[in-house]
Write a structure and sequence with these properties.
The chain is α/β, with parallel strands linked by helices and about 290 residues long. The chain has helices at about 20-25, 65-70, 105-120, 140-145, 165-175, 185-200, 235, 245-255, 260-270; strands at about 1-5, 10-15, 30-35, 40-45, 45-50, 55-60, 80-85, 95-105, 125-130, 150-155, 160, 180-185, 205, 225, 230, 240, 275, 280-285.
Amino acid sequence: MTREDYSDVTYMLEIHHPLMARAAKPGQFVIVMSHREGERIPLTIADFDAERGTITLVIQAVGKTTLEMQQTCRAGTSLYGMAGPMGIPSNPGSAKKVICVGGGLGVAPVYPQARALKQNGAYVIGVLGFRNKDLIFWEEKFRAICDELIICTDDGSAGLKGFVTDGINQALENHKDVGEVVAIGPPVMMKASAEATRARGVKTMVSLNPIMVDGTGMCGGCRVKIGDEVKFACVDGPDFDGHKVDFDDLMIRLRRYKEEERVATERWSETCRMRMVDGKVVPLPE
């Protein structure tokens, strides 16, 4: 395993797994366990290289397990288990011009989709959103595969000042022939992206991230409302038509275990020689 840190909460793990690297497709995810007693967590595949035999994951330390992995997953270590690739691969479709939108951590999983679209012959416009310039990552990777790239920052410290929806609107104004938009990021961002394209009738696909346990459709925890139907994100997705997704229901479900997550994080921080300061885990003084 190799590792790179992009910020104090965002880190990249590159895992050597030749069989999975050969099987992986854009849009798929894995279920990871960092140690024998660890929680099973779903993580979207951010990159894969069949020749090198590697799977890349980009993780944000926001709860007990991802904070624990931030502390323990170092170069040269290994994960206890990683199952996958899971989910239905993204369909590159036939659109000749596509906008690929990534917000925050969603920048990583939209990358393999943008690359596949480019390899499929599409004109790719990347729209990436970050809170500020210090959180920007993978800009050069996107510039290498995108015909155009729009960087958006909330505070205007880099690129276009505003949200990804501002970048989407700019791209749609400049390109009236966009055939599809792919958006990955926090639910509120994907919802806003879908609304930005709805009036123009531009097909918009999003990748959903509901609470998931087994990843095989057995637990039912990842059910989402898509139009008049209930789907399981793990086996029916994770990609869905953004204009049909009930994002309000998704966001309610994502908040369902917030208290349990808070308690688990605090309990872990008390026993691992670390402590919580302003929502971040830092080492205890000697």
